């Protein structure tokens, strides 16, 4: 890394402009511990980023058995050597002195150190007891988007067949469940159609609710380098905040939160009205266009302007930009996924590409983005409750295939109904039907909505909570058993990013103390439970990552996410290969749907789809009638008002989100000195007009209140649209005196103290961008003394 570049002040580093259709130039970013030079590094061990979804390839620097830095891999297709701030600095969390190093068990209300046998026997005994007394529905699993493929697949087999529970989901439900649902609704199967390389070819890039500059910094570097090169692409940004993306956009639309479907229907209206559709593509590869055209016929820009509070002329400009594109790349993320009518809105972005024929060619890409480094693996391996290999739980042949692979009877695989989503799992725990919840690598006591409710659920004596993590998180502090896990750099496995690129992450150092890899923990549990196949042999026939990968290859064979052409050795000699990778496509597959729609046929599809309003499952008969030939389905959606809107008592709309320096609940990034110093505490953003109306100023301590609760934060006035308050969701309590909860006498600092327990009817993704709120003054900031006028300190110590 250029020592003259401050990658905190400038997260994206220097520019390397390039022209359309040419390769993205390489730029190698490196950061080593103070006093360490490249000559001091004993080994470089290959891996990729674990702190966002971009999949940046990097090598881990090792000296004296410790990680001492990272270096971007210049030959990699994803990042061409570049690293973002979380990549460069986040590795330091591995060495944090408060890592969990021994199992903990609850004795007399307190967590105390124990040994592995004691901890695992407690888990096994409780599991067996619940299975005997109440059956599989009493046991649930809630996992993450940060494990390795091999670990997800093992967990999926344990849950689906070992326990036979439908109660299995990941925290990917909070960030990218809508991505999966939108792809299934349109294409019959999950799997991103596009590639990051489409940035190199696109003449128009549209970002819908995707602050790529902060959430995927290296992908934004790629876009910035195109913008700085010759013949740059035109840029459309849809976001209520004036983000770095909005600052570079040719058109920036800032709609009222919760109105995305109205806006997208107006854009579709204009493209159809002006004849910018590709009728040949529509006729050859889709069904449902006439219904869409009828649905949006009255959805004029003027109509949408009234709903979205965006000028009609701006909507027309955006439609002109989209309609005039020859090579359109669209990306979608949380501004759509965590908002009202999430799946319906994401599907309308798919529709934009279908009616314009913008798929399967360089520059014509669609990326329903992920938020986590291994969210794609969660979905493809079935750790989100779906059947592994993108198989359809309603298709008896798919279930039979899986049963044959696992050597069990089909009835051993729960497929009597849809998998249980995370929000329902916690509701079952609240109601008492769930007696055990095993939480792996995630922190719902900060990340789920309405935290007072979540804390009360996890604290119930009747619920046995297992937490498997690196640190004593807010969630772990409420557990009955805590298992110390190894993390990235301390174990071996593969993980797959948003554009289907698979990387191998090798073990570089030993985990601290007695910490074990998640795979080893799951295998230990399976052995103690003595899970068996139908012939009496062990249900799980592997004992290491390579064996798990080989088993997954067999499971993925012939499915959209086919890994049969990959191997650890191949990934060691290459750097990032996109699935499907097969004998026929040994170098991977850059884009899906280059020659029609592949997996939408009724016999092959992962899903028959859902009703766009109620989320009711479409039956196999209905799907066969609608789509007998397996084309892409153009699904229209009617705009419906949000469930909770602004009112005189709560005049603002609250949206939460991510920031460039932190990941999720800061369990890792908050322990990296540079990242923590860059954003040490929570804040709230409102527009200057909103601040002036209440007499508020930058630095004031304010309270954000909703019908569910309140939190406190420092105020920042920014170019956000009027009527909206933004709060980053990363901040909890592990680094405060209270540890796992807000103080007794005043509101806390976690954004999710205030968010609503509500979810999208199709994807079941919680809605973090729909709450009604008000902002009030707690204490003025004394700019002369750096304190509040009432003597209160910072938002963190004052909350």
TrEMBL record:
Xref: Pfam families: Molybdopterin (PF00384), Molydop_binding (PF01568)
Biased composition (Basic and acidic residues): 779-788
Region entry Disordered, spans: 1-28, 779-799
Signal peptide as annotated in the record: none
Coiled coil: none
Alphabetic keyword roster: 4Fe-4S, Iron, Iron-sulfur, Metal-binding, Molybdenum, Nitrate assimilation, Oxidoreductase
Cofactor list: [4Fe-4S] cluster; Mo-bis(molybdopterin guanine dinucleotide)
InterPro entries xrefs: Asp_de-COase-like_dom_sf, CT_Nitrate-R-NapA-like, MoPterin_dinucl-bd_dom, Mopterin_OxRdtase, Mopterin_OxRdtase_4Fe-4S_dom, Mopterin_OxRdtase_prok_CS, Prok_molybdopt-oxidoreductase
Boundaries of every 4Fe-4S Mo/W bis-MGD-type domain copy: 42-98
The keyword Lyase is assigned to this record: no
Keyword Oxidoreductase assigned: yes
Domain of life: Bacteria
Family in the record: Belongs to the prokaryotic molybdopterin-containing oxidoreductase family. NasA/NapA/NarB subfamily.
Protein name: Nitrate reductase
Lineage: Bacteria, Bacillati, Actinomycetota, Actinomycetes, Kitasatosporales
